[in-house]
Amino acid sequence: MPQFKSTYNILKEVDADEVFDTNWMDSDKLVLPPKVDWDYKRELQVEDVDIWECLYTRGGGVGVYAAWLPYAEFYMITTGSDLKSDDMWINGIAYQHRNIETFYGPEAQKRTFQRASQLGIHLPIYKEWVDNNDMWLHQPSQEKKIILDLGK
Fold it and tell me: Does the N-terminal or the C-terminal CB of the chain have fewer CB atoms within 10 Å?
C-alpha cells in the first residue's frame, strides 16, 4: 500500500501531520489521497507541495519522495539532518534543516533514480503508463541548436 506524508511531516515533525486515514483500511479497494495535476506554468518548489508519495524512507531523515498534491514530475531526496545549519523557514514555519535535493521536469525521474543509486538507495523499477501529453517529461530535453553556414 502506498504511503504518503505532508511536507510538514517530512521536514518538521516526523510523528505529526501524517497523511493517513484509518477509514482507508475499511475498504477492499486501494484508497488514495486526492491529487491535482500541476500545470507546469512555473517551476514547482518544495513549499508548493502539500502531499508526497513515499518512494523510500528510513531512519535519520533519509527518504525519496514524489510530489502527489500537486501531482508533477517533481522529486525530493532527503539525506538526513544538517545539524550545523539554522532552521529554514517555509511559509512562516520553522523546519529543522535537512539536506534536500530536488529534481523537476523532463527526466526528473531518471535523475532521481541515478542520485538515489549514488547514495546507496535502491529504488524498485516499475512500468508505468504515460499519457501522450506528458511524454515530454520522460524524454531527454531537445536543445535547439542554431547552425549557421557562413561558408556560402
Answer: C
| Residue 147 covered by a domain | no
pLDDT (tens digit, 9 = 90+) per residue, 87-145? 555 566 555 566 889 999 889 999 999 999 999 999 988 887 778 877 777 777 655 54
Domain encompassing residue 75: 4-138
Within-domain flag for 74 = yes
Q: Does residue 34 lie within any of the structural domains?
A: yes
Decide: residue 67, CB within 10 A, 0-12 exposed, 13-18 middle, 19+ buried: buried
Is 52 strand, coil or helix?
strand
